[in-house]
Amino acid sequence: MFEEKSVLVGMSGGIDSTAVCSMLIEQGYRVEGLTLITCDTGLRAAEDAAALAAKLSIPHHIADVRDEFRKLVITPFIDAYMSGQTPNPCVNCNPTVKFRLLEEWADKLGCNRIATGHYVKINEMKNSRGELKYFIETGDDDKKDQSYFLWRLTQQQLSRIIFPLGGWEKPKVLEYLKEHNLQSAAKDGESMEVCFIPGDYRDFLRANVPGIDSCLNGGAFVDSEGRTLGKHCGYPFYTVGQRKGLGIALGYPAYVLKINAAKNTVMLGKEEQLLTNYMLIEAPVWVDDIPQGISVRVRYRSHPVACDAPVAVSDGRWLVRLHEAVQAITPGQSAVFYNGNTVVGGAFIADQRGINQWIPKNDE
């Protein structure tokens, strides 16, 4: 039997999860903490979290899941770059590692709920068939909103999650910690973009893919007509929309338009060539029936753009028409769909090759 007001908090030793623990204690919850060691850099975080748990007088648990994390997150991350895509590992980690393990540990510890320091909200609504659905909503702090990364969480996971910081802005959280004499204990600073890579992802690929330089260095930069422009360092070291660090001068600002892993080519062009009103997505997940008036974000921190509901085309891909041109549609990233502030679904941005055959002729 679960104690009704009991919660397991994912603790990183940082500001946000520390504030969450304190807030939930004040709300009358029996709070326990769990720190997942997903990579070597997590060892220090576990020590910090344990010290904070002791200061808060709550039980703390540590789970070393480095092998599992490598299999479920790091290996797909490497594979994506090697296939010419630009992955977002958080989107894979959240449902398959972080929240799955929080739920499993909550079951073992008799905790009814789980909680993290994400700046998002959850809204419960019944659909037209009377079914209860759980929706993620954007947090009140626009600069910290993390709804983009959570679209793959399941209804089962969402039914147990508490996000106490959804209605807070980061400066207020810092004030809260100061008032509760926790500001010096919690580690400051924002999370790294990729938690298991302390520096440049290119160095990480070199360390994990033996011979990557000797195999791929010297591939061709090409233009949109297929003409060779020069040599590059290997296609995994570039991403769609990249302008800096190309190592080639064309007499105008050049951007990466496309990456072809099979041919080891990187297509370059002008900024306006990155703009499009259409994109292909794959593996879509919808919370419920697709509502009218949806918008989509194609990368973290991009503004939502109004769009039509996706239309199935071929090979498990769906075509999305955007109501305004969007720059640098990047295969491997997420397309997250919103209805106002509510996440209604998401998908992975697919390889865009062959898209022109499905675009209406008058829109090409």
List keywords for this structure.
alpha/beta; 364 residues; five-stranded parallel β-sheet; seven-stranded antiparallel β-sheet; globular; 25% helix
Q: Which helices and strands appear, and what pairs or packs with what?
A:
Layout: E1 3-10, H1 15-26, E2 30-37, H2 42-56, E3 60-64, H3 66-82, H4 89-109, E4 111-115, E5 120-126, E6 132-138, H5 155-158, E7 161-162, H6 170-179, H7 201-208, H8 212-216, E8 220-222, E9 228-231, E10 255-260, E11 265-269, E12 275-286, E13 295-297, E14 305-306, E15 311-314, E16 317-327, E17 334-339, E18 342-349
Parallel strand pairs: 1-2, 1-4, 2-3, 4-7, 8-11
Antiparallel strand pairs: 5-6, 8-9, 10-11, 12-16, 12-18, 13-14, 13-17, 15-16, 17-18
Helix pairs in contact: 1-6, 3-4
Please describe what this structure looks like.
This protein is of the alpha/beta class and 364 residues long. Helices cover 25% and strands 29% of the residues. The chain has eight helices and 18 strands. It has helices at 15-26, 42-56, 66-82, 89-109, 155-158, 170-179, 201-208, 212-216; strands spanning 3-10, 30-37, 60-64, 111-115, 120-126, 132-138, 161-162, 220-222, 228-231, 255-260, 265-269, 275-286, 295-297, 305-306, 311-314, 317-327, 334-339, 342-349. A seven-stranded antiparallel β-sheet has the order 14-13-17-18-12-16-15, with no helix packed on it. Strand 5 (120-126) and strand 6 form a beta hairpin. Helix 1 packs across helix 6 and helix 3 (66-82) runs antiparallel to helix 4 (89-109). The radius of gyration is 22 Å and the shape is globular.
